[in-house]
Amino acid sequence: MNVILTYVRILGLVLLGLCLSLTATASETEPTDTGRVVAQLVTSHDQVEAGDDFYVALVTTMDPEWHIYWKNPGDSGEPVDIYWGDSPSVDVGEIVWPLPATIPTGPIINYGFDGRVIFPMPVTAPEDLQDGDVISMDADITYLVCKDICIPEMAQLSVAVTIGEEIADDRWAYNIESALAEAPPPTDMIAGVQLENGEISFEFELDPTDIKEAYFFPETPGMINHSAPQTLALGETGLRLSVEAGFSLKDRLRGPIKGVLRSENAAGDVTGQWVTTHPDLSVAIGNVAQPVAANVSSLTVLTALIGAFIGGLILNLMPCVFPVISMKALNFARHAHEDVALIRKQGWLYVAGVIVTFVALVVVLLALKAAGSSVGWGFQLQNPVVIGALAVLFFVIGLNLLGAYDLKLGVENVGADLAAKDGNSGAFFTGVLAAIVATPCTAPFMAGAIGFALVQPALVTLIIFLALGIGFALPFLILSYWPSLLRKLPKPGPWMETFKQIMAFFMFGAVVWLLWVLSFQTDEGGMAKILIALLAIGFGVFALGKSGNWAKLATGVSILLAAVLVGSLHVGKPSDVTLSNQAWSPETVAKIRGEGKGVFVDFTAAWCVTCKVNEQLVLNGAGDLFEMHNTEFLVADWTNKNDLIANELAKYGRSGVPLYLLFPPGHNSVKAEVLPQILTRSMLEDALEGNSN
Predict the structure, then answer these.
(1) pLDDT value at position 123?
(2) What is the spatial distance between Cα 346 and Cα 339, in angstroms, rounded to a whole number?
(3) What are phi and psi of 636, to 5 degrees?
């Protein structure tokens, strides 16, 4: 009998211990592990008093590279869904959704989560419950988990909370509170929205001073084209996000749009908040600047000024400028042994020509951007008319230097001759021409400074470009104040004529370069027009040396014909990609990265001499390096105007080419590495090796 009583006592103690154990773990379920996702239900409290609020939460932990989806999954996928049964003992509130992230998968963009994610849901304990009562919550949970493939999964989980004196589960209460703090809070923020020409723009009235990046996640699919890039522009009192409209908004807005605005500040802190847009609301956010550059905040006005100044100095060594500054060198050589005051005066006039032109170009560029055009530094060389006019101008200057004509017929102020002639006007217009042809070149230190300048207020932009112009013009100004150096040049003599004629061939070389650029911008008809224009100008120069009214008429007709032909040039075809069969697009980058390959993107243009030097010396012969390191080569050709490329340049703080981006494999959020503008093979090899590790 005693033995039986002993066994009964032991059994009772075991059952009591088991009950206590179950009570202690009632606030969380055993994790369900599918091999891809570990899911469990947890609560913020073990016990709550009747009428009190608490939280139940779904906790999911994904294996590396697997992800699940937000309530709007984007281009594909299915959101997490929780069904609480037909007759739950308590009403469970809506999910407090965490802040989503973009998940590129091939050419599409999805919205979702990876790693560990907590989905809190509010619960209120009924007031009619008594101490000791149990709130049981049974959930059927479904979600789609994706990596290279997508697998629908389901879990049936139960969790319980006891009514009694409040006892918080310290671990899960802290985790749930952290998830709530990081989740986008519901706010009364109202945003304006506009739909025009298939593009939807959201305007948010908030402090833009510390915003580096932003993204709008619409709650409902179909509002935007999820795979299209979103362009961020900052105003004085807010920001604007523009993106291609979705299939349900192609023709008109149909009421309020709700979503989450995700923003990142200069320190890298990411926040989000729910907002509601309305088509009848217009939010005034002040003057809007160009698309925001992702790394602009790393610069200050002072460093941008220094970079612009040093870049301007180095710009004198770039090959695109040499044909023009060679004319200035010729002029200095001609007057080296004459009046020093005259040389200094011409030095200042050259500076004035450079500064006036830089300022004029910046004013035009800012005006175009204010009108909504996506343009960058060197924008004028994206216009075939400008390229054609420069080709004709350089051709005329070359003929003058070669001695084919000498204008003495009262037309000394003809613009084509001004840059080639001696005197004050020649010095000023040499500066003008040098500034115009210098813009397609990007010297070291320049790119970051220009990218920074073009997202600043207009006054700051002008000041930074003034620093660039001063740096560019300063060497000749210093030379004009250094008579001892000038006097070391040989005295004027027959050698001067030979030197002048040699300079003519540099001009003709520049004409060849410009015609080559034009071949990328226009079709065969356009090339025929510019060649006929050069022929007409050549005949006009021939007639210029003859006497009689017929000669004057022939010259006038030739000039008029050349002007008409140049003015009729237009973009006739897109640029061909020469280094790669694949043209750049954000979708192509995402697709290739999703296949486990790295991506190298060459942002280039036919008129960018620095780009072409890098291509000939490094990139054209680097096919073995790209193949060895499993990296695809893409070309973003900006020879002709392309808003998508302009916006991408702006994301990296640039407003001109070249730009070289190296993306690591994988469809994650890791940003590209920005390579230097002057490339070497060893530099490229080191970057590719580091990218593939």
Answers:
(1) 92
(2) 11
(3) -105, 100
CATH fold for domain 190-288 = Immunoglobulin-like (2.60.40)
- 666 Cβ partners below 8 Å, 6+ apart? 65, 593, 594, 596
DSSP state string for 413-460: T-HHHHTTSSHHHHHHHHHHHHHHHHTT---TTHHHHHHHHTTS-HHH
Kindly list the distances between the CA atom of residue 184 and the CA atoms of 95, 123, 209, 584, in Å, as whole numbers in the listed order. 12, 19, 20, 34
Helix (H) or strand (E) holding 525: helix 524-544
Which conformational region is residue 286 in: left (phi greater than 0), alpha (psi within -120 to 50 degrees), or beta? left
Comparing 375 with 547, the larger pLDDT belongs to 547
Whether residue 334 contacts residue 492, with contact meaning beta carbons closer than 8 Å, is answered with yes
Which residue bears the tokens 């003015």? 567
User: Which amino acid would we find at residue 104?
Assistant: P
CB 242 within 8 A of CB 230: yes
Buried b (16+ CB within 10 A) or exposed e, 120-156: bbbbebeeebeeebebebbbebebbbbbeeeeebebe
Q: Which CATH architecture has domain 25-182?
A: Sandwich (2.60)
Could you say which DSSP state residue 1 is in? Answer: -
Q: What is the CATH number of domain 586-692?
A: 3.40.30.10
User: What is the arithmetic mean of pLDDT over 342-347?
Assistant: 78
**Beta-sheet strand order (sheet of 190-196):** 211-218, 257-265, 270-278, 190-196, 199-204, 239-244, 231-234
- The mean pLDDT of the chain is 75
Higher-confidence position of 61 and 657: 61
How many other C-beta atoms can be found within 10 angstroms of the C-beta atom of residue 624?
A: 9
The boundaries of every CATH 3.40.30.10 domain in the chain are: 586-692
pLDDT tens per residue, range 21-67: 343 344 677 888 888 899 999 999 999 999 899 999 999 999 988 89
Is the pTM higher than 0.90? The answer reads no
CB 386 within 8 A of CB 433: no
Q: Look at residue 568 and give its three-state secondary structure.
A: coil
